[in-house]
Amino acid sequence: MRLMCTPSDDEDIPDQYHAALPDDRWHDSVQDPDAAGVAEAAQETVLGVLWQVWPVCLEHRTGVHAHAGADERAVWWCRAGEGHVLCEVGELAQTLPGRQRRALRRKERRRER
Length: 113
What we know:
113 residues, alpha+beta, three-stranded antiparallel sheet, globular
C-alpha cells in the first residue's frame, strides 16, 4: 500500500490522504495523516475494496483495530479476551510466524532490486 494525497483546491478544505492499493484503488480518506489515521484508512481500503479483514490477530483469529495507546503511540489493538496490543502500527511484519516473515523479507528485497 502507499499513501496518496489529493490536494484541495479550496484553502478552507484540507487535503485528503488515501491509503491506496498498488493499482491505485482506495476506499476511505483521512485529513490528518498521523499513524493511526493512515492505519485506519489502510484497513478501510482492504475491507472496502478487497472485502477482507486485515490485519488479524493470529492468537485470536480476529480483526484488530488501529488505536492510540496511552502514550499516544499508534498501535494495532485486539479486542478479544481482555484486549491487548498486537504491535505498533508499522510493525505488523514482526508478528508473523518465522516462515511468513522470511518470505515477506525476500519479496521486499526482490522489489528493491
